[in-house]
Amino acid sequence: MKTQSYILRFSVLIITFIGMPLFLYFSGNFQKRTTLMETISIVTILGFSLLLSQFFTSRLNYKLMKKIRMVNVVAIHRFIGYLFISILIFHPFFIIIPKFFDNGVTPSDAFLRLITTFSSTGIILGLIAYASMLILMITAFFRFKLHLHYKTWRNLHGYLTLFFVIAATWHVVDMGRHSNMSFSIYYILMVAIGMFYLIRTNLFKTAKK
Amino acid sequence: MPIKSINGCIGCEECIKSCPTDVIRLNPDSKKAEILYPEDCQICHLCRMYCPVDAIVITPDKSIPVIVSWG
Amino acid sequence: MKTETNNLSRRKFIALAGGGVGFAAIAGLGMNIDWALNNPEIDADTILKNTINTDVLVVGGGMAGLFAAVKAHDAGAKVMLVSKGRLGASGQTPFAKGIFAYDKEKEKLSIDEFVAKVSRSALGTNNQTYTRQLAEHSLARVNELKEWGFFESSLYNKSFSKPIEERNIPMHERVTITHLIKEDDRVVGAAGFSIDEQKVLFYQAKSVILCTGAGGFKPNGFPICDLTHDGTVMAYNIGAKVTGKEWNDGHPARGENPAACYDGWGDMFEQKPSTTSIEVRHDLGVDMNYMAYMSGGVAQMGRPGMGKQENSVSGGPYRPEEFSSEKGQGGPSKDGEKDGKRPPRKDGEDRPPRKEGEDGPPGKEGKGGPPGMGGGVVGGSSAGMSIHKAEGLVPINDTCESTIPGLYAAGDALGSYMAGGIYTQIGSSLSGSAVQGAIAGETAAKYSKNIKAHSISASKLNAIEEDILAPLKKEAGYSPAWVTQTLQSIMIPNFIIYIKKENLMKAALAYVEELRDHHVPHLRASNLHELRLAHETKNMVISAEMKLRASLMRKESRCSHYRLDYPELDNENWQAWINIFKAEDGTMQLEKQPFNTWATVETNSKVEFNS
Ligand SMILES: Cc1cc2nc3c(=O)[nH]c(=O)nc-3n(C[C@H](O)[C@H](O)[C@H](O)COP(=O)(O)OP(=O)(O)OC[C@H]3O[C@@H](n4cnc5c(N)ncnc54)[C@H](O)[C@@H]3O)c2cc1C
Ligand code: SF4
Ligand code: SF4
Predict the structure, then answer these.
(1) Minimal Cα–Cα distance from A137 to chain B, Å?
(2) Which GO terms describe its cellular component (chain A) (predicted)?
(3) Mean pLDDT of all residues in chain C?
(4) B7/A102 touch (CB, cutoff 8 Å), yes or no
(5) Closest approach of chain A CAs to the CA of C271, in angstroms?
């Protein structure tokens, strides 16, 4: 019974953060481009939804937490963390990969154009999100070298995440290739729920241990 | 329509400048490329090839408007 | 945004005077005239005016415009480049991938032999001076292009921008030039408008080089919908002589999705350019149109094992024996390349019917149309376009000078007859534009040194501004799209401009005159995009008239001009080009100019068209 329920919870997580985006991707009326481009798109979409899943594979999701041992939660959280970060860190480069396979705009020109189009809110948000993701990654990686109080660490990590997620989601909703209405609602919903958990945990439950 | 969709646009205006027949314009509010005059598209793919992020999809069909006696 | 109610529009119409009387009358009858209403998105009265001064004004940002600007600058002139579209991404230049370079180290033929061979294929229609000039200068231009990185990308804007930016040559892109300005019998500038900013632009220049390319009737299947012979018509309007309108480019398109230019050319637009060597052909005339006409609309090509199509229909356009398609004319045909306008490809996969023209089944190496398309083709994909370099302004010498002092033209905008009335040397269109652009640039710079700047009179500026903005100010009128479509249905049928006959051309001419006199003056535009369309439409109608009149006048068949009622070559009467000009009284006049003579500013044996 106990194992079953946490398998169930995991299935819910997988369905919500892998099944759902894939469903939205295939059911959305998107113009298909080359296989390479579409594969890159799917990987990126999953990278982002995994990021959103992070809210729910942490201490915030105490229901899940109660069912499995804390070390496992941390391990899962860390694994997914590194997974999505390693996808999203390449995201700006993924976009220009097709340029290696044609004779037109060179990959470097395309990349330069991409990261210097400052007239676009989406690009600015993307740059901010990217930078905060790097900070998030570095601080997580060196967490123990920082010699922070657990609570300070948790707040830092939490608020940084909040900032990152808002910038990233806004960026995705604003310029995502596949950000149609259903995708946007899905993203915003997930972020809203996640934020609710995060804020509740950090603000109201800090006293509780 | 020949030029079909623009998704994932970063608003760099490359396609707008490169379209010989002025089909695409920048939407002043969203700051993104917008297909404004698709009936003038000559299906040459220059816009797509100049786009740094492959945001443009073009199909080979063209719905030619019917002929009427005045218009 | 036709939100206006009928009442409102009726009131508006009844208030109309002059040109609107007809419409007002209709409205008065209670007829709904919403279709004709102009709903301007911009106020024509708030449009700004700008005047720019320069020595040499280069109009057009293709291959010819690039070299004209660079060479005029290097010859010491202050240069300004204006283009309707983007540098290297407008006109025909972006789609051309094979460029001819005559390298005397590598070629077996001498330049004399080359010129002679082109003349044989062109049946004398080529101007030998310009053919020779092409061979002499092509390698130097190609080497410059190489330096700028031209051969490294399928897209040309970057390599074209390099020399322009290095020299700091000012450039206006997305500006459509509509008028050339002539005062004291010489060119003193040009005028046009921007499609991005609400601005009318006047360019005061000591000389103007038209590198505006060729044009067509915005046909389906050939990427020339931004070209409407603007340069030719502007020059004609100020009295220049123009030529070459009776010839035809016979490009076919795929039967399926004929409008898809990109798809019709396989992946050629994605290829990097490369050079071609001597290969003189007799291509892209109207053989295929003839075949389709005689066999009831069926034209097939590109299928291996289809048999020789041209043998199934006898007669038709004359092709000199030496250049018959069976004979791998003039040099090895690379990779079975029939059009040669494409660089050789590494693989031998499907090739769509693209430049094969009348060559019949190109698949001598077993290559045909792509699977599923069955080789079915339709004609008229480039309708309204003549042969590159055969149509355009008439030069009076070998330096691209027109019949009007200070006005030059180069490339597809110059009727230099470099290749003749049929496609001869492969890849020469692109290098010809480069070669002529450079020469025109140098000549115009030299000319400008001895000319004082001229201030265009205010009355002239005002009149031109009125003319430019007129469609925006129309309360009602015809949409450019509809007039264009009507013109297309008059001109594009195979039995009008391809397989020509006197009675049908006269009939078509009557229609075209109707458009000219009663529809063009009522063209409306509600925004700058439509304003450009309106001016383009106007030019297309004039071009159509030129095409019909010249075709009616040439009572013989030669190269890409085919008359069903005069199917033979007539060397006795027709070793001559046809020049077209506007007479004092505003009518269109035509004259003969013997092959290999230079045009004079005066009119030759004037032949009036009897209609
Ligand atoms: C699909 C295709 C394939 C081809 N392949 C080959 C090939 O392989 N080899 C070859 O040699 N040739 C080829 N050609 C022909 C070749 O492209 C042209 O002959 C050549 O590029 C003409 O160059 P140009 O500079 O004279 O004119 P264009 O390149 O046509 O340039 C005209 C310029 O003038 C501008 N312009 C026009 N009107 C106005 C106006 N009113 N105001 C301001 N600017 C204006 C346009 O924006 C454009 O920049 C091909 C053509 C096509 C369409
Ligand atoms: S395909 Fe060509 S004509 Fe159509 S929108 Fe793109 S650039 Fe413009
Ligand atoms: S080129 Fe691409 S990214 Fe740039 S404006 Fe056009 S569609 Fe958007």
Answers:
(1) 26
(2) membrane
(3) 86
(4) no
(5) 6
